[in-house]
Amino acid sequence: MADRGCPLQPVPLPAEVRESLAELELELSEGDITQKGYEKKRAKLLARFIPLIQGVDTSLQAEPRIPGPSQTMAEAPKQQKPRPTNSRDERFRSDVHTEAVQAALAKYKERKVPLPSKRRSILVHSSVETCTPPDTSSASEDEGSLRRPGRLTSTPFQSHSSVEPWLDRVIQGSSTSSSASSTSSHPGGRPAAALAGLMAHTHIADLHSAPPDVTTGLVEYSHCERPQPAPVRGVPRGCSGRLLDTAGGVPVNSRVSSKIQQLLNTLKRPKRPPLKEFFVDDMEELLEVQQPDPNQPKPEGSQMVVLKGEPLSLGTPWPPSLLAALQRWGTMQPKAPCLTSLDTTGKAVYTLTYGKLWSRSLKLAYTLLNKLTSKNEPLLKPGDRVALVFPNSDPVMFMVAFYGCLLAELVPVPIEVPLTKKDAGSQQIGFLLGSCGVTLALTTDACQKGLPKAQTGEVATFKGWPPLTWLVIDGKHLTKPPKDWHPLAQDEGAGTAYIEYKTSKEGSTVGVTVSHASLLAQCRALTQACGYLEAETLTNVLDFKRDAGLWHGVLTSVMNKMHVISIPYALMKVNPLSWIQKVCLYKAQTALVKSRDMHWSLLAQRGQRDVSLSSLRMLIVADGANPWSISSCDAFLNVFQSRGLRPEVICPCASSPEALTVAIRRPPDLGGPPPRKAVLSMNGLSYGVIRVDTEEKLSVLTVQDVGQVMPGANICVVKIDGAPYLCKTDEVGEICVDSNATGTAYYGLLGITKNVFETVPVTAGGAPVSDRPFTRTGLLGFIGPDNLVFIVGKLDGLMVVGVRRHNADDIVATALAVEPMKFVYRGRIAVFSVRVLHDDRIVLVAEQRPDASEEDSFQWMSRVLQAIDSIHQVGVYCLTLVPANTLPKAPLGGVHVSEAKQRFLEGMLHPCNVLMCPHTCVTNLPKPRQKQPEVGPASMIVGNLVAGKRIAQASGRELAHLEDSDQARKFLFLPDVLQWRAHTTPDHPLFLLLNAKGTVTSTATCVQLHRKAERVAAALTEKARLSIGDHVALVYPPGVDLIAAFYGCLYCGCVPVTVRPPHPQNLATTLPTVKMIVEVSKSACVLTTQAIMRLLKSKEAAATVDVRTWPTILDTDDIPKKKVANVFRPPSPDVLAYLDFSVSTTGILAGVKMSHAATSALCRSIKLQCELYPSRQIAICLDPYCGLGFALWCLCSVYSGHQSVLVPPLELESNVSLWLSAVSQYKARVTFCSYSVMEMCTKGLGAQTGVLRMKGVNLSCVRTCMVVAEERPRIALTQSFSKLFKDLGLPARAVSTTFGCRVNVAICLQILPGVKVIIAHTETKGPLGDSHLGEIWVSSPHNATGYYTVHGEEALHADHFSARLSFGDTQTIWARTGYLGFLRRTELTDASGERHDALYVVGSLDETLELRGMRYHPIDIETSVIRAHRSIAECAVFTWTNLLVVVVELDGLEQDALDLVALVTNVVLEEHHLVVGVVVIVDPGVIPINSRGEKQRMHLRDGFLADQLDPIYVAYNM
To answer: Average pLDDT over the chain, rounded to whole?
Structure first.
C-alpha cells in the first residue's frame, strides 16, 4: 500500500505494537476501559514513535475520542463482540470520515437551539428487550455495513496536523472536563465547540424548581479571546449569578416563552446567506424562490461508448444445462462433496454429496408431481410457482428443494421464514406470493414447528398472504420414485427457472424472473470470470436464498462440482472469525463475503495467530458497490496481509436483482487490470458530475472499482431521468447491461418490466446504440480508466433535493461519524426521503441507546444536522430518535428502510425525540404575495359602475311600511306587547322549560310572565332604588326567571344585561368574566337567584375577585307580589332597550346597544322569515345570553305569540337525546340549535338511531332546523347530522345555517326581510363585484346602534356602525360585520321570480393570520391538521411573531405524541404552503371553547405564552 499523499512518512510499527493497539481499541469499544485510561495506555505504547510529529510534546499525544486512521497499524474499526455488551457497532465508520465530520463540526460556533419541552412521563421510554443479543444492523436493506471510506492515510498521526492549536487548550480544560473530546477550534482562539457539548446545557434543577428539561442553563458566552475550558455538565464558573434568566431576559419559569425566544434568536441569525424564503422579522423582505446555481458543475466529457465484455469462451466443454451437470456429477461422482453445513458452534453438521443431492432432488420432484392431489387432480402442473421457506441455517434442505423444483419443472420462489404475524414487509411478500399464484410452500420439519400457529394447530395465515399448503420435505415424508421414472425437465430456453424477490424503495415487493437460459449463462459467465475449476472449495457467508449467495453457492458451484462451505448468519454472530477459520481449515480457494463480514473478523482477530489465508485466490466482496466497502477492504488487507492474504485476491463485485452480476474485479492471473480508487467531490456527485478531488477535502467520497464487465455482456451508462440517453464520460448515470445472463421480467408486471428489462439506450442524436435491449441495474456509477466500473450509489437510495442528488448510504455514514458519546444503538440508522411540497425531504431515523439522556439526544441531533450540512450541503427535514430495538428489522437484522418509512408516514414510529427543520429545508415555497395597489380587484371603476361585473349586493324581502297602522305602534315596544297579550290571551302558554329527564320544570303563560315581570320591576324601584336608564345585570341559569327579570327591567325603564352565571366547579376562570361584564356595563344592580347570590359572595369567590365591590345584589326567588304603578313607556323608539355582551373568539369583550326600534324590527323579521304565529311551537336548544340565542329565548315568543320549548344545552351533557326527543314530542316545525349541540348529537347518538326510533322519536315534523352561529358554516358537521338522522325522518333539506355577528345578530336565516348586504373592499371600502371576497357590510332596521364599550381595542371600532362606501352608493349607512365573505348569484329563484343571491361567509377578519403576504383562516389549517392522524382530537392555530403555532389535542397514548409532529408539519406545508414554527401536543380538552362552541384561540395563545397548558410535548421546528 503506497503512501497516500500525506505530509509525513508512514511509520512502520512493529507487529506486537499493532496487536496491543487493536486490543486496546476493543477494550475501549466494549467499555472495559475509560477514555482517559485508553489515551494513557495508547500514548505509552506509541511513545517511541512520537517525535515524528514535529514539535509536539510527547506527553500530549492523547488522541481525541475517535482515533485517527491508520493503514499500517492494526487499528481495526471496532465492532461489537459476540456478547450482548452495549459496545458500539461502528459499521460504516471510517476514521478519516469521522475526522472529516469532526473538522466540519468545529467550524460551527456554539449555536443555541431550543430543546423541545417534554412532559416527564414520556421520558420513561423503555426500550424493547434491551438485552437482546447483538444483531447486525445496517442502514440499508441489503445489510451492508461498515465503515465509510474517507481519506485513507498511511499514518496514525495524520490527524495531528490540525491538532496543535487546541492541544494546549484541551489540557487546560481537562481539569474540569472528564473526557475532553474537543475538536479543533477556530485559529483565533474562540471557544471551541467541544465534542461533548453542542450547547452548554447546565442542569440547574437544584437552583430552581422548574423541571429539568428547561433549557435555562444556556449560558451566553461573551466572545472573548481567551481560551475557555470545554463545557462541563454542572454550572460553569463565574456564571452562577446569571443562571436564572435566559435569552432576552425572560424569567426562567416561563420556559415556553424563553424557548420561543431562543428559537427566534436562532432564526434571526440564518447560518448561511439568508435562505431563500426565510422568514425575516418584519415580514416584508421575504426572499424569492431559489434559482439554479449558474456555477454548478456540468459534464464536459465526450459521449461514452458501449463497453463490451470479453466473449464467453467457446472452447470449454460446458455441460448443456445445470440439471445435466447435476445428473452427471450425481451419477458419475456420487461421493464428491457438494455442500457442508455448520451449526452455531462452527461444527460441520452434515455434508451433502452430489449423489445425495441428485437422489433427494429426484425423490422430491417425484413426490411433488405424483403424490400431491386435490380433488383427485394433481395439485401442481409444470410451470407452477412454489414458495421455498427455509431458515438461514439450513442450506442443505434448501438446495434439495431448489433442485427438486427445477427437476419437476416447477418455479421455486425463495422467501424468508415468517417469524411473527407482523414481520416487517411480510404483507408485501404475501402480495408477491398471491400474484405468483403460489399455493404450496416447502419447508423443513424444524422450521414448520417454529412457525406461528393458529388455534387449530395449523400454520397461521399471515396478513396479506394467500392460503398455502405447507409441505415438509424431510426424507421420511418423501416417496422414492420407481426405477424407470425420469423427470422430463426442459431446463433450457426462455422458460422461467426461478423467481427472486426484491423490495423496492417504496416497500413494494416484486419478483424478478430468471429464465433457464439466463441461469445457465450466469453460471458460465461467473465460471469464466472467477476462473472456477472442478472440485474447488468455496466458503460462502452470504444468504444462499438470493443474490450472489445463490448464484455462486447453489448454482455455479454445482455446474463446476465445487464444494461449498456454508456459514450461517447465527454462527457469524457468535464467532465473526468462523469464515476465516473455515477457509484455513478447508484450504478454500474462494470466499464469498460482504464488507460487514471482513469488518467483524477484524475486531475478533486478536489472539488468532495461526490462521492463514494463503490458499485464497479470490475473496469476492459481494457488496463492493457500497460506499464503505473500500475502507473494509483496505483495513482487512492491512491486518491479514501478514497472514498470507495477497492484495490482488480481494475482488469487489457489483450486482443487482434485475441484472444479476454486473461486474467483478479479476485477479491479474485471470487478466484483470490493477485495482483503482477514485476520490470524488461530493458536490460534483450531487449534480451527477464526476470531479476528482483531493483527499484533504472534507466533502469527498472515495470509491473503489468493482472490476470489469462480465464475459458476454455489454455495459453502458444512461441518464437517470427521462429517455435513456447515453451519459458523457464524466457523468454519473444508471448502469445498463445487455447480456444473456440477466433477469427477464418482473413477474406479472408488464409495464415496469418493459421500462427496466427492455431499455434501448440512445445516443445524443437519438440513434439506438444496439439492436438488443438493455436491462437497467438500479446502480449509479460511471466507467473509469482501464474500462473499470465504478459504483457511487443505488437508485433506491437516491434522494433528489431541489436539483441535487444525495445517496442515503453516504448520509448514514456521516451521521454515524458524529458519535462523541457512543450514541446510536448498534449503528441502527435509516435514511430515506419523503415527498412534501413537490420535493424530496430527507428523514433520518436512528435508534438511541437505552441510557441516552434527553440532552445527549438533542446534542447528537444538532451535531448531525451540522455535519450533514457541512459535508453534503443539504438540510435534513426531520431527524427522529426511537427507543432501542424498535425500528423494523430486515430478515438479516438490518433496518427495514421501506417499512420504517411507511411507519413514519403513518405516524406509527413512536419516536422519543424529534427535530424538524422545515425552515432550512423547504426552499421551494411559492413567492410571498405583494400587496397590489389597485382600487377594486378585477373590476374597472367607471363612474358608479363596476365594469363587467354585477355589484355584489343582496337584500331580503321588503318590509311593508307598517309604521302607520295601530298594530305597528302597539308592537313597537316589547313591554306593551307583553301587556297586550296578558290582557287579550292571558292563558296562552309562551314558554316550556325542560330538564335533563325531559320533564317540564316550569312554564309561563302570558299573564304569569306579566305578573312576574311586575314583581321584579317593583323590587328594582323600591328595594334597589334604581332610576330610569340604570343598567341591571341578570345572572341567571337558563329559564323562565331570566325572561321575567328581563321584562321586569323594561317595565321600570332599566336596561338589562344578560350574563352567564359562573360555574360553581370552575369559579377561578368563569367568575372574573362575570365581574368584568358587570363592571364594564356599569350595572347598578345584579338580579339573580338565591343560590347564585350565595356563590357570588362565597369564600371561594373572594379568592378570585374582590367580592366587596359587587353592586347591590337582589335575589328574585321570593319577592313580594306587588304591582308597579305604571309601566315605563320610552319617549322614542331609539331609546336603549338592552345591552348584548359577548366575548369574541379573539378574546375581546364587546357590548352592543340595542334600541327598542331595533329590537322590535329584529322580532318582526324573524316572525316573517320563520312564519311564527301564536299556534306554532318551536324548540330552542341555545344559550340565552347573547346574540340570536338571547333574542329567540327572551324576545320572539312575546312578540309573535308562539310557544317556545326551551332546552338548556347544559342538560344535554346528561341526556344527549333530550333536544331531538323534545322536537319529536312537541312536533316542532322550526328548531334552533348551536354547532356544539349538533356535534354532541352526532358524536353521542351516531350509533343509537335505532334505539331512538324504538322510543318513537320522529323528526319528520321538522321543516327547518337552524344552526345559530357567528362563524363560517361547518358544512361537514351539518351534512353528517343530516345523514345520520335521515333514518328518524329528518327531511334532507331541513338543516340550514344562520349567520349573525356583533353589529347585527341575525343577518341570514337566508337573508332576513329588511336586510341589505353588500361586499366591500377591506381597505379601499369600495363595492366589489359578484363572487369577490371582501368584508360583509349590512344595513337593516335591526342593526345594533353602536358599541356600548369594546373592552380591549376601542379605537379600532369607531366606524363599525356608520360606514359609507367610498364610491357608488355613498348615502346608505352600513354596519361593518368584521367578516370576510362573498355573494354569488345562484340558479335558484325566490318567491318574486328573482334569482336568489347566496351569501358565503369565509371567516372573521380578526381571526385571520397574515403570513407570507396572504390571509389564512385558522379553520382551514385546523381542518387539514385534524385529517393528518386519527389520534388528533382537536386542533387550534395562532401566530406568534411570524411563527405559526399549531396546538393539537392527542386522543391516545402519550408515547405516540411525537408521531404527530412530522405529520402536522407535512400536511400544513403540503396544503397551505406554510412552515409550522411550533407544534404543541396537549391533552384532550385543553383548547378552550366558548359557550357557542367556538375555539378561543387567543386565550389558548395567552396560555401557551404563559406556559399554562402543561403540554405533553412542544416541538420547535428549526
So the answer is: 80
